[in-house]
Design brief:
With about 725 residues, this protein is an alpha/beta fold. Helix 3 runs parallel beside helix 20, helix 20 packs across helix 21 and helix 21 runs parallel beside helix 23. It has four domains: about 55 residues, Phosphorylase Kinase, domain 1 (2-Layer Sandwich), CATH 3.30.200.210; about 240 residues, Rossmann fold; about 220 residues, 3-Layer(aba) Sandwich (Dimethylsulfoxide Reductase, domain 2); about 130 residues, Barwin-like endoglucanases, CATH 2.40.40. The chain binds ligand MGD (2 copies), iron/sulfur cluster and molybdenum atom.
Amino acid sequence: MPRTAPRICPLCEATCGLTLTLDGSRVTGARGDADDVFSKGFICPKGAAFGQLDGDPDRLTAPLVRTDGRLREASWAEAFDLIAARVRPLVEEHGPHAVGVVLGNPNVHTMAGALYPPALLGALGTRSLFTASTVDQMPKHVSSGLLFGDPFAVPVPDLDRTDHLLLIGANPLESNGSLCTAPDFPGRLKALRARGGTLTVIDPRRTRTAGLADRHVAIRPGADAALLAALANVLVTERLAAPGPHLTDRIDGLRELEDAVKEFSPEAVAGVCDVPAEVIRDVARELAAAPTAAVYVRVGGSTVAFGTLANWLVDVLNVLTGNLDRPGGALFPLSATSPSGPPSRRGFALGRWRSRVGGHPEAKGELPLAALAEEIATPGDGRVRALITIAANPVLSAPDGDRLDRALADALDLMVCVDPYLNETSRHADVILPPPPPSRSAHFDFAFNGFAVRNQVRYTPAPVPLDPGAMDECEIHARLVLAVSGLHGAEPSAVDDLIVDRLLRRAGASPDLAADLTGATGPERILDLMLRLGPYEGLTLDALRAAPHGIDLGPLRPRLDQVLRTRTGRIDLLPEPIAADLPRLRASLDARRADGTLLLVGRRHLRSNNSWMHNLPALNGGSNRCTLHIHPRDAERLAVTDGSAVRVRSAGGEIEAPAEVTDTVREGVVSLPHGWGHDRPGTRLSVAAARPGANVNQLLDGSLLDPLSGTAVLNAFEVTVRPALAP
Ligand SMILES: Nc1nc2c(c(=O)[nH]1)N[C@H]1C(S)=C(S)[C@@H](COP(=O)(O)OP(=O)(O)OC[C@H]3O[C@@H](n4cnc5c(=O)[nH]c(N)nc54)[C@H](O)[C@@H]3O)O[C@H]1N2
Ligand SMILES: Nc1nc2c(c(=O)[nH]1)N[C@H]1C(S)=C(S)[C@@H](COP(=O)(O)OP(=O)(O)OC[C@H]3O[C@@H](n4cnc5c(=O)[nH]c(N)nc54)[C@H](O)[C@@H]3O)O[C@H]1N2
Ligand code: SF4
Ligand SMILES: [Mo]
């Protein structure tokens, strides 16, 4: 008998509620859950492909262990025995930093990835931590750390109430949003327009999002920080800056900030932005004139040379216009599992240590993912000799995959991957620990509820029980923690107890609370505790289980005083590390480019998800192709024709891809999507390998970083394009 079950979609930050159709243990369909309190029935093609993803025959169903150079299926016991036997001696001989940890994107989309990595890192004591943040949103964390004292305090646009949205370097009509969790982002943007609000989009491509906008500014890539500084300049010089009474006694450094943006007049930045000064003035005036407004930036303004400055300026503009922490502006969500009680005033520090080879400062305890290869391959004390990757495919997602590929192959004593696929990265593993498909896992969004445009809370238990021989990902993580801490063989519940203890102690709560926790599993008990310790009275796991479509907790509310963790308890508008980086931005205004220079930017397709969903027939194909978008005038100048193969070259490398001539990119800009390049041997990705595409990150050598955050420059770098020679 077919039945249905709710499951929150883990495939992007929108966190839509889905209704799965199940035939026995097989997922036969997925539709949007019309009763979901937040997503109200929305679904996209990725969510609709849930069944195919869940049942992908290429998924690993048992651990793989390398013996005599070859990966073969093994028991869980054998896999964890091997890890326990190899990690501790390595740490004892070479120190804790010799074990590197890479946490990839899906970690923020699983309960395991939210709950256990801190315990793993604590057990290892390593500083060799690399995550997807440094190819993504680290500039926002650094900016929030410096402004608000908390790298996780991210103001999100009040999408459903704002009168004006200034959206920079983001394409939520394809990505469905990021650091702004909003199921049905497209519908919410249309609703903004329908209620008389306005949308301005800044993007070198005329994206589908830009197609919805009242104003689209096709900026030259990489120049957003300059443009944003000029917007601040206009607000200041035209006396349009009005932080408002709710902020005036919460901010320091307004005068210093005004001085700092003086040299960024619209006229001064117009050249580098390739946007007329008058347009910049208009954008600033519209922002100031809107009754409420929110400024928002994502990937296209973050993975660039001035990513931290751009992210900082976004919140500076939200402050200057009085829109920070007010309805209709940019507000701090209050998630059900965020700790309640008064915030500490510890502040935020950058660069507490540096990477061994490149000397890159840590940010939020992390080193740049772009520096992973050199940390493995460069001999010397403190070299990374063992690597644990969890839900990460850095061979494709980070700069210079070829170099990392070689480092993983040649220079590691041990590599452990927690991953359902044998892919470009995990093919180098000594042990692969495969988590079950998502239909076999419970789901709760620990991370994304903290970035959601509406406070709400939802939990979906696993729709289908584990298959025989499979292991829940939470248990995999717990056993991994035990294996690396010398407690191999102990019950994984010991790790759950440890996490519960820590939470209780941090909250100053009575240890007796542990006895009250409900929940059939360790992670459920931890979730129950976090809800009980959280800011919403009476919220428990039982309450959530009784509300399978979620509980709405209302619109975002002003709460700046609960959020600020700076030592002063105030916002320093011009933090010292930012001030020290501004001369670099100033210098960029004078940079001259040769005529005909092309800058490359990325793009996402609706039916894609970074590097790992090209293996689903429903998603790989049609318009989701790895092509180089090039403007007709550039194509003509370079004798490139639509559909023909072109060579793309940059300082970091060279790749080949078919050209797609389109005026959706501005002149002087070409665009390639990322996550492709599935042509390496030894993987088990039969669909992806048949249409491998090219790895755009092979154009980068990992040397280009935003210095404040260590984030790789993945957008707005120079390339040359020429027709590929006939074979
Ligand atoms: N050029 C360029 N490069 C980019 C970007 C760009 O815009 N341009 N974007 C960057 C961004 S924003 C990001 S976030 C990164 C993403 O890069 P990564 O963090 O490397 O993530 P993915 O490429 O999504 O690969 C996810 C891995 O997790 C595995 N996985 C899937 N589901 C699960 C699960 O439930 N559990 C576990 N343990 N593993 C799972 C998949 O098999 C895959 O190996 O890429 C970055 N790279
Ligand atoms: N379908 C799909 N959805 C996804 C993902 C996916 O791979 N596919 N990945 C998920 C992940 S990990 C993330 S982080 C989010 C990202 O979510 P978004 O940030 O919305 O991601 P993108 O679609 O890459 O949008 C970035 C935009 O920036 C533009 N851009 C590039 N360079 C510049 C520049 O210098 N200045 C300006 N102003 N714009 C620039 C690009 O043209 C592009 O339109 O998406 C998530 N959702
Ligand atoms: S928008 Fe994101 S969360 Fe919603 S169905 Fe699509 S992939 Fe899943
Ligand atoms: Mo991302």
